[in-house]
Design goal:
Secreted protein; 4 helices; 96 residues; 41% helix; 3 strands; rod-shaped; alpha+beta; single chain; signal
């Protein structure tokens, strides 16, 4: 009788532990997926003083800064090289 009670008790413990709260996946990938779904429901364009920030299906969860006059970039979500930026100014001649 005691063996049966112990066996049932341990079986109940095992089942309760193994079926824990695993309904919502956690971790970086799940958070990225949630953020991607939230960002990519529709295309949003935020206007600032001299630039636009584009998010949406083409931006793929990255906030990409665009110039206002380039509607091609807003549509395609592709960033052309900005040769005037600080990343290019600080380069050595052999890096250009």
């Amino acid at each position: 009788m005691m063996k049966l009670v112990l066996t049932l008790f341990f079986a109940w413990c095992f089942v309760s532990v193994s079926s824990g709260q695993q309904s919502e996946p956690t971790g970086a990938r799940a958070k990225n997926k949630k953020a991607w779904n939230r960002e990519n429901t529709s295309v949003k364009i935020y206007h600032t003083s001299e630039k636009e920030i584009v998010t949406g299906p083409k931006a793929r969860n990255r906030k990409i800064w665009k110039r206002k006059d380039t509607t091609h970039q807003i549509i395609t979500g592709k960033k052309r090289a900005d040769v005037t930026g600080p990343r290019f100014k600080n380069r050595k001649p052999w890096q250009k």
